[in-house]
Amino acid sequence: MAKKTTTKKVIKKAKPKKKVDLKQQTIDSIVELIRVTSTVVPDDVFKTIAAAAKNEQKNTTADYAMGIIKENIDLAKYKSQPLCQDTGTVIFYIYHPAGFHQTPFKELIKKAVTLATKKGYLRQNSVNSLTGENAGTNLGEGHPSIHFYEQKGSEVEVKLMLKGGGCENVSAQYSLPDTTLGAGRDLEGVRKVVIDAVYKAQGKGCGPGALGVCVGGDRADSAYFAKKQLLRKLDDKNSNKDLDKLEKEIVETCNKLGIGPMGFGGKTTLLSCKMTHANRVPASFFVSISYMCWAFRRQGIVLNKNFAIKKWLY
Ligand code: SF4
User: Fold this and answer.
1) Is the CB of residue 193 below 6 angstroms from any atom belonging to ligand 1?
2) pTM of the full predicted structure?
3) Is the pLDDT of residue 243 over 60?
4) Which residue of 6, 35, 80, 202 has the lowest C-beta tally within 10 Å?
5) What pLDDT is recorded for position 10?
6) Do 303 and 260 fall within a single domain?
7) Which helix (H) or strand (E) holds 67?
C-alpha cells in the first residue's frame, strides 16, 4: 500500500522573497543605460548610416569614410567600448508619474554617472569652467544635465543623450531677418539659415550630421528645444505638415552640396533634420540648430516597479 503523503510534506516551504535594493537597482539600470548609449548606436541611426553608405559611389573617399564609420560602430559594440573618445555632455530626460521624488533620483543618477566613469563607459570629460579642474567623476556645476517632466501613467522613462563637443561647436543660432543670407522671417528664411549652418559646419563636427531645429522661442528655449528634437527617431514623421516637408527638403538639399562624410565630398552630408517651433515675441525670431555628429548617442529605458530595465526605447 502506498504511503500516505500528508499535505504538510508535499507543500514546499516558500523561500522568503529577496528584498530588492531599489537604490542599487536604479543605479545598475542607469549605468547599463550609459554603457549602451556610449557604445551602441541606436537601430534607427545605424539603419540610416548603412543606407547612406550603400548610396555612396564605390571606391571614393566618401565610400571609404562611411566604411570606417560603420567599422567603428561595429567595433565599439563588439568591444563594449565608447564609440568616440569624447563621450560628450551627459544629458538626461526623465519622464515620471505625479508624486515622483526627483531629488533622490537625481542623487542616484550622479552615483551612476560616477560609476560609469570609473568603468570607462564615460571619459573623465567634465571640467570646471572657471578653474579648468577635472574632478574625474563627470560631476560638477550643471553636469550631468538633468531634465524632469511629469507624465500620465505610472511608468518612469529615462532618456539619455551624450552630446559630443565637436558637433556642439558647430551648432548655431540665427536671428532673423539675416540680411547677409537674404533670410526673412518665414520658413524660406529658416531653410536658408539651416542650410548655411550645415555649409559652415563642413569639415568640422564629424559629419554626416543630424540636425535638431527649433523655429522661435527665446534664445535659451530655442536652443533647448532644438537639441530635444534629437530624441526623435530618424524615421519618424513630423506632425506639422509644413515642417515635415521642410525637414525632407533640407536633407535633400544638403546632400546635394557635395560636402559628404567628414567633409571629404560625397552624397552623405546630413542623415536627418528634425524640426519644431515655439512661440516668440514679435521683436525676435530665433532659429536654433543643434548639430549631432555620426556618433549619434541617445538611448532610453522604461523602468519596472523595481527600477529594473523593462524596455529599451530605441
Ligand atoms: S564630434 Fe562626435 S565623433 Fe567627432 S569627436 Fe566629437 S563626439 Fe566624437
Assistant:
1) no
2) 0.93
3) yes
4) 6
5) 56
6) no
7) helix 61-79
